[in-house]
């Protein structure tokens, strides 16, 4: 029987449904994807949306969808033909997820976490198992799956201190939700201990799925070709967040990037000359900000060339990477990457991807979303940490001017990436084992003993 507090939560999420609809309408004005199939958000589907007994994978946004792609590929390798039900919460996640679909798969929005929507979702699809990616645990969905004996698991799980503190403030909701999960596979030991403190059944510490991603070989090959035509080395501010672009532009302007280049003074080059000798690139994390960032660059007195318009780097002072799905190209072009999300208190973005491309990274002080990966990267010599954007620009300039150190960091990055692989194989085996145990007749998975890992917490 459900607790009174969970019933009150369900009443609240039902009552605010009109506000959710209004928010979706506003988001759709900037991102039309939010206006697609809105009724799916509330558990209402057209007749063409079918699927039953699938392996349900929920990847809320773009980053989680890319991690889910790695897991889904491994699930298909271990269990060919496995039908996938894929859900998302953001337009970018859904767009990226559409690329993963094969015949027999289904893609819909994640249902809003109110009783009616969740019940209609489970009635329609009756998933054999639910796999939540990284952080997405919702109280109503967790309770409903437990009641129906649908195993719900959390894969590639992470929980930083800030999120733990927020969950503890809402412990009356968070603890029952985490306790209802059938299994959790954490990225790191620190994540595991935080998850256990909320009542989660941590069954293993498998590492980060994103280490198992292989960069797009065609993009890396295209980057090699483009680099031959670049007159300057390139530094990219990758996956930048709001506020970070202005930080970079302010530093470049203070260093004299918009002023006439002073003449050489003997063997000592001015900072302005050093800045002018680099092609700077900004790649915003969120596509809805592409136009905003382009306008900001021009307002700050720089000339901008957009990837979507120019096609390849030009003589512009700032190149804007305003395309989706081309990060391997950008990292392949870059001599150094500045890690977006780490110069504002946002926890950093994925630094595993540049490592897999052999790109040295300069990160800011905020990397709590990838704390262990950041520490391992620093220890391996694949990255540097600085305190602010000015130090980051200075460090990048020094690396550009030191090809031997840059090459050593690139080699360390590739070694760091390859040495941390294996999470996908372990996670897929564990998912299939739980699905088989839940429905041994319907799920005839291949033997899993060799691929399964059973690390424990001390």
Fold and architecture overview:
Residues 443-458 have low confidence and may be disordered. This protein has 458 residues and is of the alpha/beta class. The chain is built from 20 helices and 14 strands. The protein has a seven-stranded parallel beta sheet with strand order 3-2-1-4-5-6-7, sandwiched between helices. A seven-stranded parallel beta sheet has the order 10-11-9-8-12-13-14, with helices on both faces. The two termini are 33 Å apart. α3 (62-78) packs parallel to α4 (91-97) and α5 (115-125) packs across α6. It is 45% helix and 13% strand. The longest helix has 17 residues, at 62-78. The protein has helices spanning 4-15, 17-30, 62-78, 91-97, 115-125, 139-147, 161-169, 171-180, 189-197, 217-227, 244-254, 271-276, 290-299, 307-310, 327-333, 352-356, 371-380, 389-400, 403-418, 423-438; strands at residues 55-58, 84-88, 106-109, 129-133, 152-157, 183-186, 202-205, 234-240, 279-284, 304-306, 318-320, 336-339, 361-363, 383-385.
Quick structural summary:
By secondary structure, the chain is of the alpha/beta class. It is built from 20 helices and 14 strands. Strands 3-2-1-4-5-6-7 form a 7-stranded parallel beta sheet, with helices on both faces.
State the main characteristics.
single chain; 458 residues; alpha/beta; seven-stranded parallel sheet
Which helices and strands appear, and what pairs or packs with what?
Layout: H1 4-15, H2 17-30, E1 55-58, H3 62-78, E2 84-88, H4 91-97, E3 106-109, H5 115-125, E4 129-133, H6 139-147, E5 152-157, H7 161-169, H8 171-180, E6 183-186, H9 189-197, E7 202-205, H10 217-227, E8 234-240, H11 244-254, H12 271-276, E9 279-284, H13 290-299, E10 304-306, H14 307-310, E11 318-320, H15 327-333, E12 336-339, H16 352-356, E13 361-363, H17 371-380, E14 383-385, H18 389-400, H19 403-418, H20 423-438
